[in-house]
DNA sequence: CTTATTAAGTCAAATGTCTTGACTTATTAC
DNA sequence: GTAATAAGTCAAGACATTTGACTTAATAAG
């Protein structure tokens, strides 16, 4: 009867939003530029010296920044630079993959302090959940053994797992890890750890890692092509990870492409899964990673055809990404062995012509990123840190609190 | 000697940023929901009743909103809804295309009040600039004849023209309108009109129009596929137009695709330019638009093969867009005749499987948008209005002022 | 060696915007 | 007719930034 259409509106903001933003801007500036004096911060952020002083004082009290030795540079009172305190905050990152799960503890500047790994039982989430909770608990207690008061400075638990999320299990796609998708993992983890839990797909996590400590550091428009068991893209747009309407942006593994007379998903052609198949390797074999690294670094004939084919697909993907996003740079990273990523980059060149061939470029069109099985877990941990400390539109609004 | 690396940091914010944001949030809420009472606004924006009262009072004083008749709905004091005043602000939109230039005057709610068109002389920018300035001046004075005080409420001049921008003229691409790209158009227009001038490519303008008054109204994640003389995509991400690092995001006309054994740019296959070529039509022929509309609505054999081929490419483009962006909806619009767009949409279906086939969708995967030669000019005008009144991260920051 | 200049940083008061809690007004429900 | 409910106002308060004068500490110049 009564017309109860919900009213849609963006949230307003207030002093706290302002202050939160300014704090984040300071931290971001110190992360990008290294230690800066209050005067430098005031100029860079367009805030007044006084405001900067107040905020820095507060951040110092919170243990997030600390003063360094005064620097004399010409006339005038020497400046006192302030830098981020690595131990100012920590996050736990958790990667859930097909066969293994990895957890790390990471600090404010992205250093990995603790890492732990465990095999995932075949029983699926019901038995896997316990393994995961134990793994997280182990990392957490190890962290507590290394750093005093780490629990107080723990900002959250970031989880990375293969997407896409929120789909109906269509039954027969072996890449989807359906059982895990159905399981109320976030709730279980949240209840089991008492931490704030956030979820990303693995490509997004890799991009988050690259932005915090890798090739995308300080870059506001970058796309990370992530070659893992599947393939995905992590989108850094306007300095933030873009998630799309349902958190599935960048899940390009399902992109159909025509090649060799057939239409196949990209994931079936340029991913570790496809390489394993090409090599008839068992994904659960713990030596496979090293073996592939070896094959790739030697340019072994058994792997060359796959590299050529995958490189062709990636070359075209990069072309498309440059054309659609107009990014400053594209980063190729993966949980793949480093030698493989390097071989791929070598085989991809020269890049296809695109809008990215512009005069006055400062960054290379294509850069190697992290190629490390642990980079996804690192990125998972980078998620909560970014949410807590990076300047973001959402952080200003009242409904973010 | 002195290390003068520039310090990079995001801008801080202050009370004015807060206030500006809250004003924008109110306007946005009224635009999306229609007239709302102060109490409704307070609930929706999470601000207090008092704050909303203050801001509404100020907006009313500024002539941007006005009260409507009180509404009784159950117990309690009747509420007084406030709605946007269409005449609260105006903007001029200018489309510069290959053969014609169009200018419109648009109000706060996106109604076109004045429209004017002129042919562009072949002499290029040097002679064209005068034509354009005259056109804008004409629209402006007609607007002044219709509305009192329109000049005071003019927020800017939005320009839309085919991209990409900022490329070296590579010499032989007939689609690039190089001479116009080289010409300091923004400066000329800014100096010639005294208005704030902003530039978008035509697909971005179309998307801006769809967001203000079309299918993307109130939608925060949408991609507009724009079929015009060329083809492009306008990206609405997180409720804002995404421009990329160099303002060229969405310029997918240059995307290479394999089809029929050849690699060709999308633009050469699915664009009015390609249709003109297919039909051996002269783009400068003023009757061409109507003729194509007629052919398309009759399903004429002369146009069917082109429609089939273009639909196949668009189908695949939509698949890719859904896969990469995970939008709420894709909108097909264009400066193409409406019947052509409808034929294309009919021919595109059924869509390729993608991540967009999710349970619980509320919007269709593909929707028709505006198909009107004037929609780009409208979108051009929507640019300044959006910049002036929509909630945006950049609007909160100090360096936006 | 003294003084002027420059720049970093602090102090205290002022400003601007949102919040709080009590109050008024207007309507329906009982 | 009275109680309950909801919209909206009032005036004081809280909070973060700004302003402008001041202090501190260095180099440059004579």
From TrEMBL, chains A, B:
Residues 11-20 have a biased composition (Polar residues). InterPro entries: ATPase_NBD, HTH_MarR-typ, ROK, WH-like_DNA-bd_sf, WH_DNA-bd_sf. Residues 28-75 form the HTH marR-type domain. GO terms for molecular function: DNA-binding transcription factor activity; N-acylmannosamine kinase activity. Residues 1-22 are annotated as: Disordered. The keyword Kinase applies. It comes from the Bacteria. One of its GO terms (biological process) is N-acetylneuraminate catabolic process. Keywords: Kinase, Transferase. Pfam families: MarR_2, ROK. This is Sugar kinase of the NBD/HSP70 family, may contain an N-terminal HTH domain.
